[in-house]
Amino acid sequence: MESTTYPTTESSRPEDEKLGPFANLAYGFQHILTMYGGIVAVPLIVGQAAGLSPAEIGLLITASLFAGGAATLLQTIGLPFFGCQLPLVQGVSFAGVATMIAISGNGGIQAIFGAVIAASFLGLLITPVFSRITRFFPPLVAGIVITTIGLTLMPVAGSWAMGGNRATADYGSQANILLAGVTMLIVLLLSKVGNAAISRLSILLALVIGTVIAYAFGMTDFSRVAEGPVFALPQIFHFGYPTFGVAAIISMFIVILVTLVETSADIFAVGEIVETKVDSRRLGDGLRADMLSSMLAPFFGSFTQSAFAQNVGLVAVTGVKSRYVVATGGLILVALGLLPVMGRVVAAIPSPVLGGAGIVLFGTVAASGIRTLSRVDYANNMNLIIVASSIGFGIIPIVIPSFYDQFPAWVETIFHSGISSSALMAITLNLLFNHLTAGNSDQPSVFGAASERTIRYADIAQLRDGDYYADGKLFDAEGNEVPLIRAGGH
């Protein structure tokens, strides 16, 4: 089975469409609003765990915005051998949060930066291996991963809808959930509008309208927007020079492997959505951009970079496939990194508003995966059980986050992510059943036969020329009835 490719030329690729400055700015800003909460969450969590002051955590956030913007520009615009030139937004990866917290307990923030630099360099060296797996990402595997990405993100949308912060008194309140529901309704209504521009901007407009409604009811606060500097340049090694510990590097390298798997899945997923060709060279360029940006991010005070799955969903729900739109979003991120005041404005958007839009957005990702899986052939093969096992395996850490708590840290790091769990299972089972065919039985299992009518070769061998079946009876060429033996008969 080969991966799906689409016949495109360099000049006719869907991702190369140029929509104009205004459209790029509007759609690009929509991308940033979609992922802003995620990109600031990691520096907040890690900074607090490392014992940094609020001002220092603010610098971590600014650095993460700047690094994410630069990484997005590298991925979308590209340089020779770096960047897949697809509409992928880059930002701080969630995959390494637990590992970085553990590292900070033994060496502080400097040990985290050193581990990220060294592990990302190792990841850069092994990207040629990952770039040669395109034939192992047919629609079967890609559909499984896309579906799991959407399902994995739904708890994030649900938490946002409830208020985003479990420590607050109004977390899960009726007001928060009602605001999320109103925002979701606005998205749906705007999507139904006949005007194509309004429909495509439904997420952005819903976020703006939802924030206005929240402000009118006193559910958001813009008073802190004026606090702090308006402009600030990122500082190289502001937190001190990185330190390099062997154990920290090894544990972070496991995170890098997970990041490579997830980024590969996101590249193939957005390739499916955009309907453009993704070959081993393009995948390799994307992975190299991922690793290079991850290796350089600690210089500015940030962490590992990877593609944001929620923005893959935004491409699917809006139908805007241009990489220049996402590149504009990268420029906005860089500006947010240089202008902390703009970041404070975006941060004032209430979590329930993000949650209402996220339900539609992340659900669209899962729906795109299901659409991809509908193209898979399930006749007389094991594809059905591959889909069932892989999605089920990926859902486990989503519904039971503590499932791997008693396992070694490296096991938890790899399989705590539903995306990497399903991707690894899908690739392994696809190899086992569809590539390593030695030992496969010519009689399909109960799973392979579950949705298909099958007849054994031994039964067909008993038929003769002219035999026919009518009214529940078998007849020979002369019209004589041939006795049928019931199951278990002799």
Automatic annotation (TrEMBL):
The chain crosses the membrane at residues 25-46, 58-82, 112-130, 136-163, 175-191, 197-218, 239-261, 324-343, 349-370, 382-404, 410-433. It is a multi-pass membrane protein. Keywords: Cell membrane, Membrane, Transmembrane, Transmembrane helix, Transport. The keyword Membrane applies. Its main location: membrane. It comes from the Bacteria. It is found in: Cell membrane. Belongs to the nucleobase:cation symporter-2 (NCS2) (TC 2.A.40) family. NCBIfam families: ncs2, NCS2_1, pbuX. This is Nucleobase:cation symporter-2 family protein. It comes from Paracoccus simplex. The lineage of its organism: Bacteria, Pseudomonadati, Pseudomonadota, Alphaproteobacteria, Rhodobacterales.
